[in-house]
Amino acid sequence: MTHDGLHVAIIMDGNGRWATRRGLPRAAGHRAGVASIRRIVDRALDHGIARLTLYAFSSDNWRRPTAEVQGIFWLLRAFLRLETNRLRQRGVRLQAIGRRDRLAPVVGDAIEKAELLTAAGDCLDLCVAIDYSSRETIARAAARMALSADETMCQPVLSQRLMGDNSDVDLLIRTGGEKRLSDFLLWESAYAELYFTDCMWPDFDEAEFDAALEEFYSRDRRFGGLSVTARCSSIDAFDRCP
Ligand code: FPP
Predict the structure, then answer these.
(1) Residue 160 vs residue 114, higher pLDDT
(2) How many domains does the chain contain in total?
(3) How confident is the model at residue 13 (pLDDT cuts 50, 70, 90)?
(4) In a domain, 222, yes or no
(5) Which of 83, 137, 185, 236 is deepest in the core (most CB within 10 A)?
């Protein structure tokens, strides 16, 4: 199976419930969630997936209790400190999307350092969404475009402003049983195949990831057109038409 240029995006949901069901604090769920991230990054590399975008912290997640928010950022920093070398060795280029201005300087610095150290990676783009809101990203790109006198307000220009060298999402996975997009990559997922699973993120392992990919390849992606068989029968019918 070839995964040429594939962009997979994941809403990693269910850490809290995973922990609560085990009588553990929610922080234990986030910690187990980081172990899943390691597994899935490795699997994405094994599969030759081009880009993996992970929803680590939405702009709405600031509404959570301060201790939980601090815990998530502590885990993020620990992940960057412990994993950056390994990511670099495996050819992973790490990038973050989302707002930086509300992050604690130590968090911003850690992200920047990891981005610099992994900049030459050419096997997998690992994009981590932090303080990210898709609506806000779209609104900002549109506002910048409106301010720029020499740009036509049109879809390709907005798309370029918004996405830069980012690519459309091919497969969007959400774990944890909910079936919504939660303000994640709304523009980029216009033609994404959506895959929802009840599996909680800490339980999402290599087999679960493979099952999602298998389901993706069984789908007929028509991008608004017709499938090959429908196209042939439509041409036949046209030819037969008097
Ligand atoms: C969703 O589960 C998970 C999050 C909001 C945080 C995910 C963050 C990490 C795993 C740690 C840091 C990230 C990196 C890239 C190392 P939830 O808490 O909403 O689960 P629930 O719906 O069961 O409450």
Answers:
(1) 114
(2) 1
(3) very high
(4) yes
(5) 185
- Summarised one tens digit per residue, pLDDT across range 111-122 is 999 999 999 999
C-alpha closest to that of 115 among 133, 97, 132? 97
Rounded to 10 degrees, the C-alpha dihedral 54/60/65/71 comes to: 20
Say yes or no to pLDDT of 175 above 80: yes
Question: Ligand 1 centre from 193 Cα, in Å?
Answer: 22
Name the pTM for this structure.
0.92
* CA 11 to centroid of ligand 1, rounded, Å: 9
Residue 91 located in a structural domain:
yes
Burial (Cβ within 10 Å: 0-12, 13-18, ≥19) of residue 149: exposed
- The neighbouring-strand residues paired with 5 are none
CB within 6 Å of ligand 1 — which residues?
Answer: 12-17, 30, 33-34, 37, 54, 56, 61, 72, 75-76, 79, 128, 176
Domain with residue 202: its CATH number is 3.40.1180.10
- Is 24 inside any structural domain? yes
How far lies 80's CA from each of 117, 138, 215, in Å?
A: 11, 28, 31
Residue 197 has pLDDT above 70, yes or no: yes
Cα Rg of the chain, angstroms: 20
The strand pairing partners of 222, in sequence order, are none
In the set 13, 125, 131, 170, the catalytic residue is 13
* Catalytic status, residue 13: yes
86-98 confidence digits (pLDDT tens): 999 999 999 999 9
Q: Which residues constitute the domain of residue 60?
A: 7-240
Of 199, 153, 194, 141, the residue nearest 172 (C-alpha): 194
